[in-house]
Amino acid sequence: MAEIVFSHVGLATTTVIHALLTLVTGIALLTHRYGYPPRGRRFAVVRVAHTTFGVLMIVYLVATYLVVPL
Q: How far is the C-alpha of 44 from the C-alpha of 65, rounded, in Å?
């Protein structure tokens, strides 16, 4: 039988990385909204990435809360 083990520190690090990526894409979306360059279709990709990073951040945040540190 296989045993799956999660590291509390690894989950916390991943959460912080996703938070930073969400922040960076959010700032990019704000600058796009207020008319700063660049413009184009690639901001649809940034919008999807921002949402994905935010959802993954919440998933990892809950996992970090539930995993007991050793």
A: 32
- Contact between 12 and 68 under an 8 Å Cβ cutoff? The reply is no
CB atoms within 10 A of CB 39: 9
Which tokens is 45 given?
A: 């990709």
Beta strands in 1-70 (DSSP E): none
Q: 7-60: per-residue pLDDT in tens?
A: 888 889 999 999 999 999 999 888 888 777 666 677 788 889 999 999 999 999
Q: Structure tokens of 62?
A: 């809950």
User: Collapsing DSSP states into helix, strand and coil, what is residue 16?
Assistant: helix
pTM, to two decimals: 0.80
9 vs 6: CA distance, rounded Å: 9
